[in-house]
Amino acid sequence: MSSRIEVYPDALHLPAVLAPGEQRRLAARCLAIGRGPAGWYVPRVRGGGLMRVRMVCLGRHWNARTYRYEAVRGDHDGRAVLPLPADLAELAARVAAAAGMRIEPDVCILNYYEAGGRMGLHQDKDERPETLDAGVPIVSLSIGDTARFVMGGFTRREPKTVVRLASGDGLVFGGRSRLRYHGVASILPGTGPSGHGFTGRFNLTFRQGAT
Ligand code: SIN
Ligand code: MN
Fewer Cβ in 10 A, N or C end of the chain? Predict the structure, then answer.
């Protein structure tokens, strides 16, 4: 089993939880999904600005205007959302188990950050109240360049910890940490392993309670 670093109670960083071969296969999947029909788009948030990341949702679509999950890409091109492949859902459950938690995900948000990509501080709180209350975790998997991931408290202003999420790393935050503010401060270009067939960083977050 890979090591587990407790960032906060019930927020565990699992360095290199994905073996190199698994990372390469997952990177190829992400590339194919992103380049395919109903692939990458850049969400426009409520304030009107474009996010600094490309996105594809699997299972359910996260609408950046309404902050709701839906069956079609209502804030973009109206296409039907792609299904969440069973093997990816199983992978998320395996990683959650390695952190001592459980998930039966119904959605995966795949993010693609290039140099300059980032994500502002936010809480993941658009899933069903039952799953939030139960502390069902978010399972995050990273491939490619290292990210400076920031995690804080339950208000924006609380002190924050920086976690360097490298290729193959998992981060599982549930239970008492399910609603912590977090974001991506920056990507460290050129830090990912070679041979993955892309530059930049993929991050997959698996969630339960989007349906
Ligand atoms: C997210 O918070 O939704 C994505 C985090 C990441 O890219 O590591
Ligand atoms: Mn998030």
Answer: N
> Measuring CA to CA, which residue among 68, 67, 35 is closest to residue 54?
35
Mean pLDDT (the chain) is: 97
CA of 171, closest atom in ligand 1? 8
pTM for the complete prediction? 0.98
Query: Backbone phi, then psi, for 84, in 5-degree steps?
Result: -90, 115
User: Is residue 172 within 8 Å of 14, Cβ to Cβ?
Assistant: yes
The finding on whether 111 has its CB within 6 A of some atom of ligand 1 is yes
Domains of the chain, CATH where assigned: 5-207 (2.60.120.590)
203 alpha carbon, closest ligand: 1
3-state secondary structure of 57: strand
Phi and psi at 178, nearest 5°, equal -60, -35
| Nearest partner of 99 among 202, 183, 169, judged by Cα | 169
Q: What is the model's pLDDT at position 2?
A: 75
Rounded to whole angstroms, the Cα distance separating 143 from 91 reads: 14
**Residue 193 to residue 3: CA distance in whole angstroms:** 20
How far is the C-alpha of 170 from the C-alpha of 97, rounded, in Å? 12
Average pLDDT over residues 100-123: 98
